[in-house]
């Protein structure tokens, strides 16, 4: 029987213990092998997972859907744009009706801060957060951790730089507490107007790549989230690239075996140069994306799967 985790929803990183995170990463490794040998146990057989996305998504949504299907589960989708929300129905009433259909889990992305915890208070099944406003994106942090462990064999003791729009990044909102909990040292690098409002103790903030990248084992680059900021914050993509774009030259400031990650979508030529994104020696960006499937399989399996 699979060891379970101590939480019944995945809305944020804080309630997860280091042991829970290790359990999820180990289960993801099991599923990655099972996918390659086509021996995936059908632990979501007869389960129906409700997806509820009010913001755009490619990787998160499609890898969750693939994860459900690979585990033998079924999907039901609520689409805000063609729903009765357009006729004035409240979100709370919508949730009460959808809950009446008894889904086995809700996977949700929502533009409102902390919406997943609100939904978890209404529905009777586990809620998995696929990103809420600029707050948290816990499964992205788990797949980032999985990718780091796969490439480096560990997380504990590594120095990990997170570069870019930290003020608006829910990825950083989950990466920082997760990677810190697993023993990494975090360097946050951003221009002053994109630095986070607060950081946990021990996390270092830098305002230049030249200072922040020195000694790093991992660099996580983030997209500039123009949809969440005033146009004046980043007036010019070229100037941003000039100051904060990750180029091969800047990569050389980090450790020689540094790996480069990006949650996607990438804005090539803004936060990352093509030569870095496609560098076969350092970039693990597309493996990172692919790891979304086994990691989300692990989360679904541990929260709703039947033991096999
Ligand atoms: C991120 C997101 O939507 O939070 N993308 C993702 O889930 N892979 C990051 C972003 O939009 O920049």
Describe the SSE topology:
Blueprint: H1 18-36, E1 48-53, H2 59-70, E2 74-79, H3 91-100, E3 105-110, H4 115-120, E4 127-132, H5 138-152, E5 159-163, H6 170-181, E6 185-189, E7 204-206, H7 209-212, E8 218-221, H8 237-244, H9 248-251, E9 259-261, H10 274-277, H11 285-290, H12 292-304
Parallel strand pairs: 1-2, 1-3, 3-4, 5-6, 5-8, 6-7, 8-9
Helix pairs in contact: 1-5, 1-12, 2-12, 5-6, 5-12
The chain binds N-carbamoyl-L-aspartate (NCD).
N-carbamoyl-L-aspartate is lined by residues 59-60, 131, 137, 140, 170-171, 223, 225, 263-264.
Which key phrases capture this entry?
single chain, 308 residues, alpha/beta, Rossmann fold, 2 domains, 5-stranded parallel sheet, 4-stranded parallel sheet, 12 helices, 14% strand, binds N-carbamoyl-L-aspartate
């Amino acid at each position: 029987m699979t060891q379970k985790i101590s939480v019944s929803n995945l809305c944020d990183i804080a309630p997860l213990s280091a042991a829970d995170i290790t359990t999820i990463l180990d289960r993801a490794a099991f599923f990655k092998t099972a996918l390659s040998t086509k021996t995936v146990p059908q632990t979501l057989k007869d389960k129906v997972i409700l997806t509820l996305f009010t913001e755009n998504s490619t990787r998160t949504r499609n890898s969750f859907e693939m994860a459900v299907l690979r585990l033998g589960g079924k999907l039901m989708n609520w689409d805000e744009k063609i729903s009765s929300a357009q006729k004035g129905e409240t979100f709370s009433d919508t949730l009460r009706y959808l809950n009446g259909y008894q889904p086995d889990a809700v996977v949700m992305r929502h533009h409102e801060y902390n919406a997943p915890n609100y939904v978890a208070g209404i529905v009777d099944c586990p809620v998995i957060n696929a990103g809420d406003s600029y707050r948290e994106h816990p499964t992205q942090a788990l797949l980032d951790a999985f990718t780091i462990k796969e490439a480096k064999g560990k997380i504990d003791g590594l120095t990990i730089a997170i570069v870019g729009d930290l003020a608006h990044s829910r990825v950083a909102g989950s990466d920082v507490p997760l990677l810190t909990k697993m023993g990494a040292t975090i360097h946050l690098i951003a221009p002053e107007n994109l630095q986070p409002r607060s950081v946990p103790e021990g996390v270092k903030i830098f305002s230049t790549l030249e200072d922040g990248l020195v000694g790093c084992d991992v660099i996580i680059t983030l997209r500039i989230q123009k949809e969440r900021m005033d146009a004046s914050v980043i007036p010019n993509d070229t100037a941003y690239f000039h100051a904060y774009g990750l180029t091969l030259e800047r990569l050389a400031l980090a450790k020689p075996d540094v790996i480069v990650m990006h949650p996607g979508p990438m804005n090539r030529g803004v936060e990352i140069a093509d030569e870095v994104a496609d560098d076969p020696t350092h970039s693990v960006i597309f493996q990172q994306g692919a790891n979304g499937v086994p990691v989300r399989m692990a989360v679904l399996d541990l929260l709703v799967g039947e033991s096999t």
